[in-house]
Amino acid sequence: MNRCIYTKQQFEVADGEHILQNFLSARWTSSQISSNAAQHQFGSSIDVALADGLKEIRNLLGTRGGRGEAGPPLKNVSGSSGTKFTVAPGGAPSIAEPVIKTTPLPDGTHQAQVVLGNMKQLGWAVAKLKEMFPDASIDVEQLRQHAVAQTGYVDEHLNLRSGLGGDEFFRGAMKATFNLLGACDADTALLSIFDRAREFILNGTGECTNFIRWLKTSDEVALPRIGDFDQFVGVYSKNGFVDGYIHFYGEIGYLIRLAENYTGPEFCYGYVVDPFREGDPAEIRNPDFEIESIPAFDSGSKLPDESVWPGYSARFSRILARYYRRADEQNLSKIVDDVLLPHTGEIITEEMLGELSRKAAEYMVRRLSMNPRN
Fold first, then answer.
1. 72 in a domain, yes or no?
2. 235 with 118, same domain?
3. 226 in any annotated domain
4. Is 347 found in the same domain as 203?
5. Which of 5, 227, 234, 235 is within CB 3.0–4.6 Å of 189 for a Cys-Cys bond?
6. In this structure, is residue 68 part of a structural domain?
7. Model confidence over 99-116: pLDDT tens digits?
């Protein structure tokens, strides 16, 4: 018979609870720590809030869930010129609604340029044109015949806003640390000193500031690494406290306090996951790490105030810098393949090298013009 570390109720069987949420590409599960009732409650609340708060980073990087599923697209993202975009996993944007630009002509008519994300938006564009020019005669079939398919780079900056923070977001983060403790030492997780933490995670009872601190430093935390964007969760005892630390995509970290007045044996458990699952291994359960490398809980801020945002801004910048390096490698590799693969087995000519140089230069010029800091 198992006992749920959240409700303390006994249960015989349950679905596998992910120690770290599945959308973060983690695969470690336990069917012994959490009842199905608790899992269902989490799956429709705090797990959704955590995923929603991190969706922009996940979308940009294009990481998949632990079962291999792609993340959701971002919808109705505004560009710097007002265009609405849908951003697919991996950061590829497409126009979300028709863009219509009109130019008045000397004879009193107007010339209209219509840009669509796909041909399914043609009817939408026609409706907008009729609203702009009620007396105009619009031939839909003629528009369809004159449509030209094009692909290229977006000339606008996309305004992505992260949704970090909030009680449910932090309850989801805390759940991962408590899951880790339960998976490694269920008897300890059932101690009464954790009752306040389990009530906050399960029902939102209590003040979030009792359990969570924002990092004040921009320094990287020295932890086991697999890749550039690791997810990490750790839980450990020190000086009578049971604390935790979690960070997402290698940088976005939070300090967690689960309990005080702990008098049992000292412990230290961790879990690190490469969200691209390119490492070998792609995740490590209970890697060695030094507790002293993690900032003390009391060193953090209760609120995301002016002492916090410079550090988190630096952390976002490092994520972007790593993302651009990775994207450059992938895009330049694709350019090489596009130019040379059609000529497999042939001698490389000056024309091929010229085309390769031109396309690589065009890519880098465009990339640097849109992101001059990287």
1. no
2. no
3. yes
4. no
5. 5
6. no
7. 888 888 888 778 888 888
Task: Look up residue 196 and give its amino acid.
Answer: R
Phi first, then psi: give them for residue 79, nearest 5 degrees. -90, 170
Spatial CA neighbour of 254 closest among 233, 285, 284 = 233
Taking only the tens place, the pLDDT of each residue in 31-77 is 999 999 999 999 999 999 999 999 999 999 999 999 999 999 998 88
Does residue 311 contact residue 300 with C-beta atoms inside 8 Å? no
Identify whether residues 53 and 181 lie together within a single domain: yes
Residue owning tokens 């809980």: 297
Q: How many domains does the chain have?
A: 3
Q: Which two tokens stand for residue 354?
A: 């010229």
| 147 — pLDDT class (breaks 50, 70, 90) | confident
Question: Which is nearest to 319 in space by CA: 272, 250, 224?
Answer: 250
Q: Are residues 85 and 196 in the same domain?
A: no
Q: Identity (one letter) of the amino acid at 125? A: A
Inter-residue contact 254 to 212 (CB < 8 Å): yes
Q: Where on the phi/psi map is residue 308: left (φ > 0), alpha (ψ -120 to 50), or beta?
A: alpha
Check: CB of residue 61 under 8 Å from CB of residue 216: no
- pLDDT band at 239, cuts 50/70/90? very high
What is the domain extent for residue 204?
A: 2-60+163-299
Which of the listed residues 146, 173, 192 is the one where a domain comes to its end?
146
Closest CA to 60 of 146, 158, 130: 158
